[in-house]
From TrEMBL:
Record keywords: Repeat
Protein name: Pentatricopeptide repeat-containing protein
Alphabetized PANTHER family for the sequence: PROTEIN THYLAKOID ASSEMBLY 8-LIKE, CHLOROPLASTIC (PTHR46870)
Statement: the UniProt record of this protein carries the keyword Repeat: yes
PROSITE patterns according to UniProt: PPR
PPR repeats: 144-178, 179-213
Pfam families, A to Z: PPR_2
Natural source organism: Acer negundo (Box elder)
Length: 259
């Protein structure tokens, strides 16, 4: 009787063992084996594609599923929020000053510079001036000619010459001199606005700068001062002394008169 009871109890155990052996001996289909063999190791875990039968991805790999700040990787979320807020309140001076006190002053150094550069790129130059004033009040600020240069050039391109000259005076108070590119943009801006006297003031500042002047600002002046022969002759004389191997083009007399 005991032997019969023991043999009956072993039936389910042997059945499970036989079933497991049959599953192991079941041949793999050629299509699934070929698909597994053709894919590199761990390819299913890194690349999107059809899921093989029996393999299911049960985890998230941590990568974003959409264009998260795509194209603005160099600007942080806090900086982007400040840019949008400044543009939103730019027509309301009271709200703008409150937003600057509560959000712009709390930015870190790199975020503050990123906001300044992005506003210059978007030609929001008056907002860029306000951000630059905040930047100058920071403890880590040191006079930087490139910050002034980019802002002055952006103001000149947008024909805001009064603000450009205010920045120019602040830059000179900090004993900084711009490069030839900045001189060219400011001279071009004054000539475009019909202010040759102001253009000549920038020209005199360029002549007195410690770095030797380059050819391009002279070319801009020689072209823009055609209606003003006296001023043009002075610039032409300096140009021939500094660049004796270069030639200054004089237009026909019947167009602009004798230069």
């Amino acid at each position: 009787m005991a032997t019969r009871a023991f043999s009956r109890s072993k039936i389910p155990i042997w059945a499970s063992i036989v079933t497991r052996r049959n599953l192991i001996k079941t041949p793999t289909t050629s299509s699934s084996f070929t698909a597994l063999k053709s894919r590199p190791p761990f390819a299913g875990f890194d690349e999107p594609g059809p899921v093989l039968s029996g393999f299911i991805r049960l985890y998230h790999d941590g990568r974003p599923r959409g264009p998260l700040w795509r194209g603005k990787k160099l600007i942080g979320k806090e900086a982007l929020f400040v840019i949008l807020g400044l543009k939103r309140f730019k027509d309301d001076e009271e709200k703008l000053q409150k937003f600057i006190k509560t959000h712009v002053f709390r930015l870190l150094k790199m975020d503050l510079i990123a906001v300044l550069v992005e506003l210059e790129r978007q030609e929001e130059t008056l907002l860029a001036v306000k951000v630059f004033e905040v930047l100058r009040k920071q403890d880590w600020y040191e006079p930087d000619v490139f910050l002034y240069k980019d802002l002055i050039m952006a103001l000149a391109r947008c024909r805001k010459m009064d603000e450009a000259m205010r920045m120019w005076e602040n830059m000179r108070k900090e004993n900084l001199f711009p490069d030839s590119q900045a001189y060219t943009e400011v001279i071009r801006g004054f000539l475009r606005d019909g202010s040759p006297a102001d253009a000549m003031n920038i020209y005199e500042d360029m002549i007195k700068a410690p770095d030797p002047p380059e050819e391009l600002p002279f070319r801009i002046l020689l072209k823009g001062l055609l209606p003003h022969p006296l001023l043009r002759n002075k610039v032409k004389k300096d140009f021939e002394e500094l660049f004796p191997e270069k030639h200054a083009y004089d237009p026909p007399e019947e167009i602009f008169g004798k230069c």
